[in-house]
Write a structure and sequence with these properties.
Elements lengths: L2 H10 L10 E4 L17 E5 L8 E2 L5 H5 L4 E7 L8 H11 E12 L17 H8 L3 E14 L2 E13 L6
Parallel strand pairs: 1-2, 1-4, 2-3, 4-5
Antiparallel strand pairs: 5-7, 6-7
């Protein structure tokens, strides 16, 4: 996770409850940073397809509902991960199952001008409309911002969309 994304997480932290409850971090392998640096909880579970720093369980996100049960998390974090998921819609369906009503989903995805980065593979890019209408379908959007993760020769490049959504149907934590 890029430093600019970490800065965005810190900037928007006040939009979430002080006590975050049970957290699931999908794609938690710490490559350039981790959401754990911003979101703390007594129960923070990081999953990824590969072993490594900040990964508590190696597993496919498609299987989280079967592994953890429905409405079992207060916050689901999915930063810079969906573009590496060959069936991201399965992951989104699973997130909707494990996230409690009124819970929060924090996500970040690259836009069309972000370069391909095969870690290990790279399948998708998203528009703001896709974030609002696909990733956050059934959510109240609390924050959505395009940020640039790199500067080259004075130009901002590598845009991503970061967003926070609150799942409909509950009062939150």
């Amino acid at each position: 996770m890029d430093i600019k994304i970490t800065e965005w997480l810190k900037k928007t932290r006040s939009l979430l409850p002080i006590n975050l409850g049970r957290i699931l971090d999908i794609g938690s392998l710490n490559v350039n940073g981790s959401a754990r640096e911003v979101y703390t909880s007594d129960e923070y579970i990081g999953i990824d397809l590969r072993e490594g720093k900040d990964v508590d369980r190696v597993m496919n996100a498609h299987d989280i509902a079967e592994e953890f049960g429905e409405e079992s998390f207060d916050l689901v974090v999915c930063m810079s991960t969906l573009e590496h998921d060959n069936c991201f819609w399965l992951t989104l369906g699973a997130i909707n199952k494990v996230l409690k009503r009124g819970g929060y989903h924090v996500s970040c995805v690259p836009t069309f001008h972000f370069p391909i980065h095969r870690h290990p593979k790279d399948y998708w890019r998203m528009s703001e409309e896709a974030v609002r209408e696909v990733i956050f379908n059934g959510y109240e959007t609390l924050a959505l911002e395009e940020i640039f993760t790199k500067e080259v020769n004075g130009n901002s490049v590598n845009p991503v969309i970061c967003a926070i959504g609150k799942k409909e149907g509950g009062g939150g934590l």
